[in-house]
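Narrative summary of target 7.
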Amino acid sequence: MQHEAHAHHEHHQGHETHQHHGAHHENHEHHGHGHDHGLGPVTWSTAAQATLHCLTGCAIGEVLGMIIGTALGWGNVPTMVLAIVLAFFFGYALTLRGILKAGVDFKTAFKVALAADTLSIAVMEIIDNGVIALWPGAMDAHLSDALFWIVLAISLGVAFVLTTPVNKWMIGRGKGHAVVHQYH
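Modeled conformation, tokenized:
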């Protein structure tokens, strides 16, 4: 009887090891390079770096959109739409650049950029443009007005602070910028 109990125990130990190996194997394949994305605690620093990456693209697009819209004499709404479109474009472009540098084909890199940045950029743009739209006089400020630049800086700062927890949450679940890190 002791032998049977012992044999039964060894069978379960081997089975547990086999299950653990399978889970490890699946994790390794899913995340590449053996990194532990989305399975452990994500630091605020990691989330802030991902947010800063998105913020850079958003800021480039926002400013360029405002400059183009103002230079063409467009009204507030078309200028804001252009700024948002360019914010997404430059946000994706910065991510694409890094992924393509790793030797990934464009189609795959584009899919990864969409998965990594869409929610982050969308949240950032809603917050950023919301602050600008609600700030008295900001929508009518010109590029030469200090108010324009002050409100833009504040809106981007608020967007950064409020988007960082979103990125932390996404990275912690293996989404957002977690999908990009396997290519670095």
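Helices lie at 2-31, 44-71, 76-101, 106-134, 146-172, 178-181.
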